[in-house]
Specification:
Largest sheet of chain B: 5 strands, antiparallel
CATH class of one domain in chain A: Alpha Beta
Structural class of chain B: alpha+beta
Radius of gyration of chain B: 51 Å
Distance between the termini of chain A: 121 Å
Distance between the termini of chain B: 137 Å
Number of helices of chain B: 6
Number of strands of chain A: 9
Largest sheet of chain A: 5 strands, antiparallel
Helix content of chain A: 40-55%
Structural class of chain A: alpha+beta
CATH class of the largest domain in chain B: Alpha Beta
CATH architecture of the largest domain in chain B: 2-Layer Sandwich
Number of helices of chain A: 5
Strand content of chain B: 15-25%
Strand order of the largest sheet of chain A: 3-2-7-1-8
Largest interface: A-B, 99 and 93 residues
Strand content of chain A: 15-25%
CATH topology of one domain in chain A: Alpha-Beta Plaits
Radius of gyration of chain A: 50 Å
Oligomer: heterodimer
Number of domains of chain B: 3
CATH architecture of one domain in chain A: 2-Layer Sandwich
CATH superfamily of one domain in chain A: Protein of unknown function DUF881
CATH topology of the largest domain in chain B: Alpha-Beta Plaits
Order of helices and strands of chain B: HHHEHEEEEEEHHEE
């Protein structure tokens, strides 16, 4: 009875010992599956490097996106103001006479007389003078003309009409008669004002007396060249900053 | 015999228990070691981490390259310089058109007395001809399309009545302007002769400022040809 119990305890101890030994023998095999110290460190280093690369790539992407957005915003703003400036520039060019124009209007033709100078007469009475051109042009502007040209010279700011001897210069360019003054505007209104006896009275009487030519025709389409001289601004500056 | 047998089996039991104790300790240690080393990263896990990082970095690099390309290929952004040139041209034309207040050196022609619209017209023409860059009459800007008209007992400049004191200002080279106007046989001499009762003076000024043209540039009948 006693012996039987003792050998039972002994048996149990042996069995447990056997299990544990078997387990102990298995453990080093599991250990072998884990990489050795050196290679484990290498792998950890690789992971750290990849993570660092990932971080820097994300930073780069963030920076690029910001830059791109800023560029697009700037580009948009620039092209918007560019559009604004170009359209404003086009308006100013139109106002300054830098664009050739067409539209309804009138043509006033002035020419020296073909009559012979009468005995004791003044030859100047038979010629068209610079001030007569100015007077007709002034009347055209006062009557609502939008643009005016004499022969091939468009009138612009700073244009002067003067004579040297018997030659008339417009934009410092010599013109020869006949002088064809063309104006774009309300053709009917312009013609009425030109024909009104109260206007250009002296010129009209000279036309009757000396045969000076003064003809007015209105038409549906008058064409004017662009002003082709420059605007020199060496002494002027804006009193206030632009815009 | 019985006691000897009991003694020997006790010894065996003791030895077995001793061995059992050692094996248990060793086994616990080994298990502990395995647990910490393998921890989160079994070699398979590490391989997964690496491969996902490599994959993610490749796609991040691709995105970064795409963005850099887009940035480089950003359409032609108008250069600030070309815009400055345009603004300069714009301001120049605004001065020419009388749409900007302007200042500069020049001259003043002061006529105290009545003259005709034609003479004032001629005087303005003469000032332009002398090289004026900007002109004003009685502080009213004169432009290419300005008209001087004889009205009832007064001269009208672009529809505004002028009194009988005429102050014509011109911006430009003061000396050149003055010389051109005051030359013997010139317009000022002619006006002084014609209006002997009027006082006519030409003065150089270091600084003149002029307001903007009051009229408007309207084009209802004219069309640009292109």
């Amino acid at each position: 009875m006693n012996t039987f119990r003792r050998s039972k305890a002994l048996l149990a101890a042996f069995v447990l010992l056997g299990f544990l030994l078997a387990a102990q023998v298995q453990s080093p095999r599991q250990m072998a599956a884990v990489p050795k110290e050196a290679s484990r460190e290498r792998v950890a280093g690789t992971i750290a490097r990849l993570e660092e690369e990932q971080r820097s790539l994300k930073e780069t992407i963030g920076r690029l996106r910001e830059e791109l957005a800023a560029q697009q915003k700037l580009g948009l703003a620039r092209s918007e103001s560019l559009r604004e400036i170009s359209s404003e520039l086009e308006k100013q060019r139109l106002a300054a006479g830098l664009l050739p124009l067409k539209g309804q209007g009138v043509t006033v033709t002035l020419d020296d007389s073909s009559k012979a100078v009468g005995a004791g007469g003044d030859p100047a009475s038979y010629l068209i003078h610079d001030y007569e051109l100015r007077d007709v042009i002034n009347l055209l502007w006062a009557s609502g003309a939008e643009a005016v040209a004499v022969n091939d010279e468009r009138l612009a700011s700073g244009t002067s009409i003067y004579c040297v001897g018997s030659t008339i210069l417009v934009n410092n360019t010599r013109l020869s008669p006949p002088y064809e003054i063309r104006a774009i505007g309300d053709a009917v209104a312009l013609e009425d004002r030109l024909r009104n006896p109260a206007n250009l009275a002296k010129l009209k009487s000279r036309a009757r007396l000396y045969g000076i030519q003064f003809r007015v025709t209105s038409s549906k389409e008058v064409t004017l060249p662009a002003y082709n001289s420059g605007f020199s601004l060496r002494y002027s500056s804006p009193a206030k900053d632009g815009r | 015999m019985a006691s000897k047998e009991r003694f020997s089996s006790s010894v065996v039991l003791t030895l077995v228990c001793f061995a059992l104790g050692i094996v248990l300790v060793v086994q616990f240690r080994t298990q502990g070691k395995i647990a910490t080393d393998v921890s989160a990263q079994s070699s398979t896990d590490q391989a997964l981490i690496i491969s996902s990082l490599v994959e993610s970095n490749a796609s991040l690099r691709k995105e970064a390259n795409r963005l850099a390309g887009e940035l480089a290929g950003q359409g032609p952004i108008p250069k600030a310089g070309s815009m400055e040139a345009m603004v300069e041209e714009l301001n120049k034309l605004r001065i020419v058109n009388g749409l900007l207040e302007v200042m500069g050196p020049g001259i003043e022609v002061r006529i105290d007395g009545s003259i005709t619209a034609l003479d004032l017209q001629d005087l303005v023409n003469e000032v332009w001809n002398a090289g004026a860059e900007a002109v004003a009459v009685n502080h009213q800007r004169v432009v290419g399309r300005s008209a001087v008209v004889e009205g009832e007992n007064a001269i009208y400049l672009d529809g505004t009545r002028l009194g009988s004191l005429y102050i014509i200002n011109a911006i430009g080279h003061p000396e050149a302007l003055e010389k051109a106007l005051s030359r013997p046989g010139g317009l000022i001499a002619l006006l002084r002769y014609t209006y002997s009762g009027a006082s006519i003076a030409v003065t150089r000024l270091e600084r003149i400022s002029m307001p903007v043209y009051r009229g408007r540039y309207e084009f209802r009948y004219a069309q640009a040809m292109k």
